[in-house]
Design goal:
The protein is mainly beta. 8% of the residues lie in helices and 51% in strands. Keywords: Signal.
Length: 290
């Protein structure tokens, strides 16, 4: 048996777990309401999450799951945004077998989303089973993708399709304006690099973090956050009734400084929960655009 987690979009991690638009973390920002006009910037950090199996259905064939996800984000609006991400999971099937899957991605998004470079590799039991590499650039009337792996190919996507950081900016801007629904098409080079996903994002009511001192995420205590759920759809995968069902959904707490906690990845027939194990904040580079 080979269980490979469905290719979780780079924007899901490269955006929702760090490269998100946040609010400056000073006292004035902490006191600001969701609809207030406040300064905004991305917060560089390294977050580590322990991943565990949640609810599962019999057809999933999964008896157990343990894993760790590491997300490292750096950069700013002046220099662009770099992401290094790794998601390692060990699955146990209902027949007693096991498998280790290792998803590794790196990406760089230029300021103002002028281009987006990506490299993704998936290993199963230490063997490379999938690699995707390419660059997407903004053109006059469309965005052009130049793929190098898994094969050399050029394609065009719509000019309104968002890159990962663009997508997160739209979510955080909506949250700050007390808007609770965002729809967008996104591209992040997932799978073979040829697919654009439709997304719908539901943003809940703002809350305030209460992490305990001395525990992972303690620096989030007192910060505002929003419960967010993002559903990903493959426009080419309608069922027999013509209904479009989500490929998967991701739920999490998105804090005003761009950090996420309490992760829930719902693949339909099984769920993975992510709990923050450690959080390191990096020194922020100077950028007048933040």
């Amino acid at each position: 048996m080979q269980i490979v987690p469905k290719p979780v979009l780079l924007s899901t991690f490269a955006g929702l777990f760090a490269a998100a638009l946040g609010v400056a973390s000073g006292p004035a920002a902490l006191a600001a309401g969701a609809g207030a006009s406040v300064g905004q910037k991305l917060v560089p950090h390294r977050a580590v999450y322990d991943m565990k199996l949640g609810d599962t259905e019999e057809q999933a064939g999964i008896a157990g799951l343990n894993g760790r996800m590491v997300y490292d984000f750096s950069g700013n609006a002046c220099d662009g945004y770099s992401v290094n991400f790794r998601f390692v999971t060990e699955f146990q099937d209902t027949n007693g077998g096991s498998q280790i899957t290792d998803l590794q991605t790196t990406s760089f998004e230029e300021p103002h989303a002028e281009s987006y470079q990506f490299l993704s590799k998936t290993f199963v039991d230490q063997k490379l089973v999938e690699e995707t590499r390419g660059t997407a650039r903004v053109g006059s009337d469309a965005k052009t993708v130049e793929l190098k792996q898994p094969s050399e190919k050029s394609l065009q996507i719509g000019s309104d399709v968002l890159f990962p950081t663009e997508h997160l900016l739209s979510i955080l801007k909506a949250a700050a304006k007390d808007v609770h629904f965002v729809a967008a098409d996104i591209y992040d080079g997932a799978e073979t690099g040829e697919k654009v996903y439709a997304t719908t994002t539901v943003i809940g009511a703002m809350g305030t973090g209460d992490a305990d001192a001395g525990k992972p995420g303690a620096s989030l205590s007192g910060l505002n956050y929003w419960p967010v759920t993002v559903a990903y759809f493959d426009p080419s995968a309608e069922n027999a009734s013509g209904e479009l069902l989500p490929v998967y959904q991701l739920a999490f707490r998105l804090y005003q400084n761009g950090i996420s906690s309490d992760l829930k990845l719902d693949y339909g027939d099984f769920i993975i929960h992510g709990k923050m194990a450690s959080l390191e904040l990096y020194e922020e580079g100077a950028c007048e655009q933040d």
